[in-house]
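Need the bound structure for S-adenosylmethionine, inputs here:
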Amino acid sequence: MSDVPLSEMVTFSPNKNIPIHRWFYYREGYSKAFVEWCIQNYKLKGPILDPFCGVGTTLLACKENKIDSSGCDVSPLARFVSEVKTRDYDLDEIQTEFSALKKTEFDFPREGRVESWVAKRFHPQTFRELLIIKKFLDHAYKKNPLHDLALLALIDSTLRASNVERMGASLRRTTKEYKPIKKFWLQKLEFMMKDLKKAHILGHIPVILEDDARLLKRVKSESIGSIITSPPYLNKIEYVSAYKLELALFFDEPKTQLRSFVGEEMRNSSGESDLPIVDAYLKDMEKVLHQLYRVLLPNGKAVINVAGGAFPDRIVKSDDMLIEKATEFGFELEDNIVARTIDAYQRHSGFVGKVNERVFVVKKPA
Ligand SMILES: C[S@@+](CC[C@H](N)C(=O)[O-])C[C@H]1O[C@@H](n2cnc3c(N)ncnc32)[C@H](O)[C@@H]1O
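Answer from helper R.:
Posting the output first, comments after.
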């Protein structure tokens, strides 16, 4: 078993050193070590579902451990990254294609302005080059077996080549310089090819669904052995804002808002709380828990990694509330561990309190 402490396993950090898992940094993700720890510690049986699959950490770890899995995420960016990381590749074929791609000449124009909020996040020449490479991938290269790997490398290079950096959910301006995006892109692709040589395993390709965890329309009742997942945390990250550059350039607008609450029903909320977002979050998570109960086989377990929420004047223990809701649905609580405690600060009010990030395990009775 991994010697990474649980407090670190629940972060994306350990993935930064792991081939394939490190292809797209997802601050909101957990680690391969966490998934393997869950499988071993709680003796989880397949098939495994991750209804908030993010960039596919659960799914890739399952593939690597030869376990069938499936997942969904409302973000097209997250689904794309998950798919590219978990496919089977013919390594000789894509290596040949990569050698040819490196020799491709691109005709980058030196003039022409595109005025949009996206263009303003880049040096004008970098932006022109980005659009030319993207156009090449969208058209001439569309059917190439290397296409999706090359597109992921470009998506990942976008932020590095821009003049902004991600700060929580927003983008903060950094420099104004020209950045050589073609060089970044080919370097990243080369790095990915090396990772495939080191760690690529065939088989157990996960099924990645375009679905909403509150509905799980595409998952049959009593078809899932175990669930490992981490839903959005209350009041934490607006996924659309954090990844808006990549989403605007490479994908259609996601159909749901992907706020820190799971859905988008805050304005309709008629709950008692003076924080409508808490009611909206709990209502959404009730729907999710209902679906988890429905799709699990009897004796199936769900391992859930979640934290409470921090507001300017208080901490809301939404993690404890979720456990209570899960037991109301008929789940049996099998374990409940605090993985780490985080000091919560808010911009205007300073230190607000301590938020627990926990792992709880519930079982559907036989
Ligand atoms: C905490 S992250 C999960 C990260 C994942 N464990 C990983 O390691 O990559 C939560 C994910 O839930 C997704 N999400 C938000 N609302 C959703 C919904 N209603 N249905 C499915 N996925 C949703 C977000 O796009 C985000 O990728």
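Comments: The mean pLDDT is 91. The first strand starts at residue 48 and ends at 50.
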